[in-house]
Amino acid sequence: MQIIDLLGHESIIADLKVSSKKQVLHDLSSRAAGVSNLQERIIFDVLLERERLGTTGVGSGVAIPHGRFPELKQLYGLFAKLEKPINFESVDEQPVDLIFLLLAPESAGADHLKALARVSCMLRDKEFCEKLRGISDPEAMYALFAESDSTYSG
Question: Residue 101: CA atoms inside 13 Å, Cβ hemisphere, count?
């Protein structure tokens, strides 16, 4: 599975203006509703519940919020670069500015875990993240994900 298979051109947001973790989850839930045909409130509630189990702020300015949904038939991803880093209660206590949201079917099982692992591997690469941070155009971000996909094959 390629990361680019999860991301449409409309699923990449550059310079998202938010000031809190709750606000970013709400905004991303709204945008995810548009690409996944799920209700915004359902997405938001699942993401909040997942955060209660433990933060998805994985460190180095990166968060990977995710959830499973019985209504979904396929995996969906959204990527956002924040205009200003926010407190995401990350494991390293550093603010977050790169967020990859992953929505998975409840039945996805291994595919969900493989997608999470692949996204995590990609976003742990400091050079890749610095390139993302240096780009302000969503199309250029999409191209970077597409170009880098082969590097992070499982």
Answer: 29
User: By C-alpha distance, which of 131, 153, 71, 54 is closest to 106?
Assistant: 71
Which residue has 């603010």 as its token pair?
A: 95
CATH 3.40.30.10 fits 3-149, yes or no: no
Question: Who has greater pLDDT, 64 or 8?
Answer: 64
The residue ranges of every structural domain in the chain are 3-149
pLDDT level of residue 154 (50, 70, 90 thresholds): very low
Give this prediction's pTM: 0.94
Residue 11 token pair? 């699923």
Which residues are catalytic, by number? 66
Average pLDDT over residues 117-129: 92
Gyration radius (Cα) of the chain, Å: 14
Answer left, alpha or beta for residue 109, where phi above 0 means left and psi between -120 and 50 means alpha.
left
For Cα atoms 66, 135, 35, give the angle at the middle one, nearest 5 degrees: 35
Q: And the tokens for 79?
A: 């990527």
DSSP of 100-117, one letter per residue? Answer: EEEEEETT-THHHHHHHH
Q: What is the pLDDT of residue 153?
A: 53
